[in-house]
Specification:
The complex is a heterodimer of chains A (293) and B (160).
Chain A lengths: L10 H20 L8 H28 L3 H38 L10 E7 L9 E4 L12 E3 L4 E8 L4 E5 L6 E6 L5 E6 L6 E2 L3 E2 L9 E4 L11 E9 L6 E8 L8 E5 L16 H4 L4
Antiparallel strand pairs in A: 1-2, 1-13, 2-5, 3-4, 3-13, 4-5, 6-7, 6-10, 7-8, 8-12, 9-12, 10-11, 11-12
Chain B lengths: L1 H21 L4 H4 L5 H12 L6 H15 L5 H15 L1 H5 L3 H26 L10 H23 L4
The chains are: A alpha+beta (293), B mainly alpha (160).
């Protein structure tokens, strides 16, 4: 039997309680970041829904892999073997260069460590918040993923982990409006900070002096400053460098080198010692104390 | 038994709509995705206000926040506000024709998208995309069929 008069507290009272809860949550989550540790459990609650939503696409891709023709498989295998050969040859040279670099660094008394721990992860291409640029990946706290972990693909830096669940995590992309990453220009080591613009293929480089030596087409790589991203990974290419006469700073924009919206597999990097990748060797302070002639 | 049966159907529709809300679509179609959560909540509140109400809207909003990775409480606040407006007027909305409810839903979704943008822009730095409001129209297109289908479900499975 339906009744017009519902039981329990009135709608207005319920609304007030709920709105108060929501405002509390909004402030606690956004201003004080109280939920960063609890979110592991909260995200685990909803991860079944994410797996259900991701299942059809996964099924479809395995299905389409299964019905590939033999010829296509053979072709692809050949192509991959060729690529593998090239990469292995490059790697031979890399090992040689690495030992040489190590020797040279020992001569200069500056130690730089390279860490190799990394993990392949698959993107779950589910919809995310419409205002931010995020990706969901299928690795979480049980795989050792941590907050702020750098994420790359084979082309360059993609972003960093912003939320961790037990089996899934969220990656905030470098083009997100709230993201910034310290970089240097590969050609001349000028340092800058690259901010996301909110558009898929545009990054802003603020506070670049108008007489800075930056040209269109310059490659920006991570500088390792700040300790989050290891040094040396490509981030973006300068697409526009303009300045008005008399302005203090130039307008510089860049495009990310990684295909952010198209990559299916990403790599998680472990950057254990935050300052291991950065070159923090300063010149001895006496030089600066001497008066300039 | 009857109560369990009703909630079984209601929660099943909620689950399906949550999945539909995050289901992977090509990027071009992503902006045209109807607002499934608003549709399903409005339907159940108009049909069975003593079963689904502000509490449910709040919990579902939290789920949606977690699924989309937005700030906790954003969607929860909006959905519970919509649930409040619907549940104090459900008798009136029940007597509306299908065209009138479609227009009403359009207004609801437009207001909720506007409010969402307002909350998000006051909390963090965001960018508004051109296609952001298109889902209002797709939701209005979907609503009549959705409404008829849900009514069929409700009568078929005797949800009360």
């Amino acid at each position: 039997m339906k009744t017009i008069f519902t039981r329990g507290p009135s709608f207005t009272l319920r609304l007030f309680i709920v709105i108060a809860c929501c405002v509390g949550l909004l402030i606690a989550d956004n201003q004080f970041n109280l939920f960063s540790s609890v979110r592991v459990y909260l995200n685990s609650i909803v991860s079944p829904i994410q797996y259900v939503a991701d299942a059809p696409q996964k099924l479809f891709s395995t299905f389409s892999e299964n019905i590939m023709t033999r010829q296509a498989l053979v072709d692809r295998n050949q192509q991959l073997e060729k690529d593998n050969l090239h990469l292995k040859a490059d790697r031979l040279l890399l090992g040689q260069l690495q030992s040489e670099n190590k020797q040279l660094r020992e001569l200069l008394n500056s130690k730089k460590q390279f860490k190799y721990k990394r993990m392949i992860t698959e993107v779950m291409s589910l919809r995310s918040d419409p205002f931010t640029h995020q990706l969901l990946i299928d690795k979480g706290a049980i795989n050792g993923v941590y907050l702020g972990q750098p994420v790359i693909n084979e082309q360059g830096v993609v972003g960093q982990v912003s939320q961790v669940g037990s089996t899934t995590s969220r990656v905030v992309l470098i083009v997100d409006a709230s993201h910034g990453i310290p970089v240097r220009v590969q050609r001349n080591d000028a340092i800058a900070v690259v901010h996301g613009s909110g558009a898929w293929d545009k990054l802003n480089v603020p506070f670049v002096q108008s007489n800075a030596d930056i040209k269109e087409g310059d490659l920006l790589v991570t500088s390792g400053l700040g300790g989050r991203f290891p040094a040396g990974y490509p981030v973006a290419k300068i697409s526009r460098f303009e300045y008005q006469e008399g302005e203090l700073y130039a307008t510089v924009t860049a495009t990310p080198v990684a295909d952010l919206d198209r990559s299916r597999y990403l790599l998680l990097l472990w950057n254990d010692d935050p300052l291991a990748g950065a070159d923090l060797t300063l010149d001895s302070p006496e030089i600066f104390d001497e008066p300039v002639q | 038994m009857n109560l369990f049966n009703s909630y079984k159907i209601i929660y099943f529709t909620f689950f399906v709509c949550l999945v539909a809300a995050i289901f992977p679509l090509p990027i071009i179609l992503n902006a045209f995705r109807p607002d499934w959560m608003v549709l399903v909540l409005c339907y159940w509140i108009i049909a069975l206000p003593h079963r689904v109400n502000i509490g449910h809207a709040f919990i579902l909003g939290l789920f949606l926040d977690l699924l989309l990775g937005s700030i906790l409480g954003m969607h929860a606040m909006l959905l519970s506000l919509l649930a409040y407006i619907t549940s104090i007027n459900f008798q009136r909305f029940r007597n509306f024709t299908l065209v009138q409810t479609t227009l009403l839903l359009g207004v609801f979704i437009f207001m909720s998208k506007l409010a969402l943008y307002w909350i998000a822009s006051s909390m963090q730095e965001i960018v508004l995309h051109r296609h952001y409001f298109w889902s209002v129209f797709t939701s209005m297109l979907v609503w009549p069929w959705f409404f008829l289908f849900m009514r069929f479900l409700r009568i078929r499975f005797k949800v009360s």
